[in-house]
Automatic annotation (TrEMBL):
<comment type="function">
    <text>May be a carrier protein for lipids.</text>
</comment>
<dbReference type="GO" id="GO:0005615">
    <property type="term" value="C:extracellular space"/>
</dbReference>
<dbReference type="InterPro" id="IPR036728">
    <property type="entry name" value="PBP_GOBP_sf"/>
</dbReference>
<dbReference type="InterPro" id="IPR006170">
    <property type="entry name" value="PBP/GOBP"/>
</dbReference>
<dbReference type="GO" id="GO:0005549">
    <property type="term" value="F:odorant binding"/>
</dbReference>
<feature type="signal peptide">
    <location>
        <begin position="1"/>
        <end position="15"/>
    </location>
</feature>
<comment type="similarity">
    <text>Belongs to the PBP/GOBP family.</text>
</comment>
<dbReference type="Pfam" id="PF01395">
    <property type="entry name" value="PBP_GOBP"/>
</dbReference>
<keyword id="KW-0732">Signal</keyword>
<keyword id="KW-0325">Glycoprotein</keyword>
<protein>
    <submittedName>
        <fullName>Odorant binding protein C13</fullName>
    </submittedName>
</protein>
<dbReference type="GO" id="GO:0007608">
    <property type="term" value="P:sensory perception of smell"/>
</dbReference>
<keyword id="KW-0964">Secreted</keyword>
């Protein structure tokens, strides 16, 4: 019985470490993608800071930046088509709730006239959710 318990505990520790490794890898990818998208779009750090502060900023470079990050995260394909399953899966991981993820997807993930507008408006809506 003690051996089984020890094996279970070891398994839990290993699983937790693997999860942390995965999170660390994801964070590194996000940092890399952020820098790549900043370079590709030409968006300024001031504009990004305003976005992070949940201020709506109408800026074409910011729209290119959000489009770039959506493609790199798999939220859009190269043609700018939304990948609803990827978005929903990510939102479920973040919120821990399928119901909340479905609500945010329904309210925020809506195709607009261009992929850049779609990505920008989606992010803007997510920040409004985050604020509430």
């Amino acid at each position: 019985m003690k051996i089984v318990l020890i094996c279970v505990l070891i398994g839990l520790v290993v699983a937790k470490q693997q999860k942390q490794d995965t999170l660390d890898e994801e964070k590194e990818k996000m940092k890399k993608w952020t820098q790549e998208c900043i370079q590709e779009s030409g968006v300024t750090s001031e504009i990004l800071q305003q976005l992070r502060n949940q201020k709506r900023v109408e800026d074409p470079k910011l729209k290119e930046y959000t489009f770039c990050t959506f493609k790199k995260n798999g939220f859009m394909n190269e043609d700018g088509k939304l990948q609803y399953d990827v978005i929903k899966s990510t939102l479920m991981k973040v919120s821990g709730s399928e119901e909340e993820a479905n609500k945010v997807v329904k309210d925020c993930v809506v195709e607009k006239s261009t992929p850049q507008d779609t990505a920008f408006e989606t992010v803007d809506c997510w920040y409004r959710y985050k604020k509430n």
